[in-house]
Amino acid sequence: MSNNRTFASLKKSSLMDKRKMKEKLPPEIRLNRYIAGSGLCSRREADEFITRGFISVNGKTITDLGTKVSTRDNVKYKGRKLQPEKKVYLLINKPAGYVTTTKDPHAERTVSDLVRHACPERIYPVGRLDKDSTGVLLMTNDGDLTKKLTHPKYERKKIYHVHLNKAVIRSDLFRIVEGISVDGSIVRVDSVEYADPDDRKQVGIELHSGQNRVVRKIFESLGYRVSKLDRVYFAGLTKKNLPRGKWRFLTQKEITMLKRGIY
């Protein structure tokens, strides 16, 4: 009887040890995500590097795109070890005249020019702001957060200060609230109101839609032309105390807020 109890106790202990070991093991992710997370390239470029045989894992050349790895594995690109890159989160108060991209051979200036010496990591803009639009723009190298903030199904809150070419009549504000057809679908805003009671050419608009150039299209459909578009709020972030053309790193509180979706 005693031997049976001892055997059962050992068996239970062994199972518990295995569970603890499993819990302690770092999570596995797809190889292309790991490579992109090192700052070497994008996931699409990583797929190409894998299929061309440029990547090895623990000394073995890998060409299978479905391969998964963890931080325990030794991943190399052409013999150079790759390690997870430090995550960087940076906020810009974008001025007009800058294209929201990291590279554009046809653009005189891109938002990357504004943060060229900010950090050694390869960062990119989250979402879009037209060349002539201004305001809050987040840049990061955190792919998971970027997906959460830009995927259409998440529809993050945005607030814009809009300057129009002529005074907006009150009935058109009501029409905007009721819903405006944009590119074949009805876009509804959370709220819209005059930004300055003494100047009806200025309107504040709050919405969650992620459609491209949606604010401009809303007003164009009603016969107005947007002369200036300034994003003052994006997913809990504002341009408060941040001059036009300047940038700053996010606080840890802001980073946590974005990751948890608390805004």
Would you give an account of this structure?
This protein is of the alpha+beta class. The chain has 3 domains: 1-84, RNA-binding S4 domain (Structural Genomics Hypothetical 15.5 Kd Protein In mrcA-pckA Intergenic Region, Chain A, Roll), CATH 3.10.290; 89-152 and 238-260, Pseudouridine synthase I, catalytic domain, N-terminal subdomain (Alpha-Beta Plaits); 158-234, 2-Layer Sandwich (Alpha-Beta Plaits), CATH 3.30.70.1560. The protein has 7 helices and 17 strands. The strands form 4 sheets. Strands 7, 8, 9, 10, 13, 14, 15, 16 and 17 form a 9-stranded mixed beta sheet that branches. A hairpin with a 2-residue loop joins strand 2 (55-57) and strand 3 (60-61). Helix 2 crosses helix 3. The longest helix has 23 residues, at 2-24. The protein is elongated.
List the helices and strands and how they pair.
Layout: H1 2-24, E1 29-30, H2 31-37, H3 43-51, E2 55-57, E3 60-61, E4 68-69, E5 75-77, E6 80-81, E7 89-94, E8 124-125, E9 134-140, H4 143-150, E10 158-164, H5 170-178, E11 180-182, E12 185-187, E13 191-196, E14 199-207, H6 214-220, E15 226-234, E16 237-238, E17 247-249, H7 252-260
Parallel strand pairs: 9-15
Antiparallel strand pairs: 1-4, 2-3, 2-5, 5-6, 7-9, 7-17, 8-9, 10-14, 10-15, 11-12, 13-14, 15-16
Helix pairs in contact: 2-3
